[in-house]
User: Which sequence fits this backbone?
């Protein structure tokens, strides 16, 4: 028998109807989280209406963790508003915002090692983060996203360095808040959980303050020093803090891990501090891409639809997708290769989920009695 394939429009309509029914369980008081993409675009080469239309209208994302602005802690974006970098990021933001992608963040990663004993270098790092926050404010971005994954050994345990690391984090936080008081801070990677990777999330609090084990047992030395770093970083009175977790990559039911991660950070920060910072947890998805050249699927389209629905139901402010380079674009800046088979079904799922969430939120608002 010849297979019948639905058109992208029909697929989107069907997914929208299903998602609307499934999304009804979301609390009526909740709004819709924004969908962000990790990787994908290059703000240097893709600051065009054509590219913005692809990401905003075809794919359906609402913002990016923007790489290559301040790629590493040692990179300084400077302070000149007329510099090529500042003007280019402002251009990128203005064009992408016109296509529904206003929630962009400068992503800073640990691509280079940090020498915690070099006081002058640490002072420069503080200045670098201050300048990046000023750039984010000037260009109209939402804030800064700090990726705590150690691509080079960074967090290797050492009690003698804990105080230095915490003080450095406090200085970074103060500098960024001074430069951009209303910025959103995103922390990519739940370092509390990564420090005790074999401990269930609901038992993590009991491990706080205990030895995670020898650093040689962990990739690039583990996350021991990331804990005092987080203590210093999250001690500031942020306008908004988001923990972008990866623990949800391979799970269909995201409500429990998102809820437990929220509780763990409330304990770690203190409930009052967490409340002042508007703490929330953003579940991450990784549906496509095995390498920069292999853009095939990790999730089937139905599985991605289910994971996306679960993520939207669990999230307060943001859901994010790990894009593994250019897994969502055939001729993307991280490498050209065919996208996954059935790719339109993945983008249709995104549009259906966003539509169902918007419809649910509108219904809830209409049913709310006027005061």
Assistant:
């Amino acid at each position: 028998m010849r297979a019948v394939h639905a058109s992208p429009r029909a697929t989107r309509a069907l997914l929208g109807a299903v998602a609307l029914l499934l999304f009804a369980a979301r609390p009526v008081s909740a709004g819709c989280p924004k969908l962000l993409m990790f990787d994908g675009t290059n703000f240097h080469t893709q600051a065009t209406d054509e590219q913005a239309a692809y990401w905003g209208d075809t794919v359906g994302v609402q913002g990016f963790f923007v790489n290559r602005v301040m790629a590493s802690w040692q990179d300084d974006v400077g302070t000149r508003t007329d510099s090529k970098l500042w003007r280019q990021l402002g251009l990128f933001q203005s064009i992408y915002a016109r296509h529904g992608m206003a929630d962009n963040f400068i992503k800073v990663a640990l691509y280079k090692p940090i020498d915690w004993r070099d006081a002058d270098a640490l002072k420069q790092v503080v200045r670098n983060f201050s300048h990046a926050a000023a750039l984010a404010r000037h260009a109209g971005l939402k804030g800064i996203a700090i990726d705590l994954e150690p691509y080079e050994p960074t967090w290797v345990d050492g009690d003698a360095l804990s105080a230095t690391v915490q003080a450095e984090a406090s200085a970074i936080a103060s500098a960024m808040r001074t430069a951009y008081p209303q910025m959103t801070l995103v922390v990519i990677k739940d370092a509390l959980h990564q420090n005790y990777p074999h401990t269930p999330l609901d038992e993590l609090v009991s491990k706080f303050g205990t030895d995670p084990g020898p650093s040689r047992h962990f990739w690039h030395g583990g996350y021991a020093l990331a804990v005092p770093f987080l203590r210093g970083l999250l001690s500031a009175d942020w306008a908004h803090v988001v923990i972008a977790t990866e623990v949800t990559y391979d799970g269909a039911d995201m409500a429990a891990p998102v809820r437990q991660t929220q509780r763990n950070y409330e304990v770690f920060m203190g409930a009052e501090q967490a409340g002042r910072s508007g703490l929330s947890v953003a579940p991450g998805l990784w549906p496509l891409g095995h390498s920069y050249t292999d853009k095939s699927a990790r999730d089937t389209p139905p599985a991605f639809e289910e994971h996306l629905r679960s993520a939207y139901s669990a999230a307060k402010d943001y859901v994010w997708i790990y894009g593994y380079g250019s897994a969502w674009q055939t001729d993307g800046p991280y490498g050209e290769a065919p996208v996954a088979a059935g790719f339109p079904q993945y983008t249709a799922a995104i549009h259906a989920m966003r539509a169902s969430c918007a419809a649910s939120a509108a219904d809830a608002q209409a049913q709310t009695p006027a005061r």
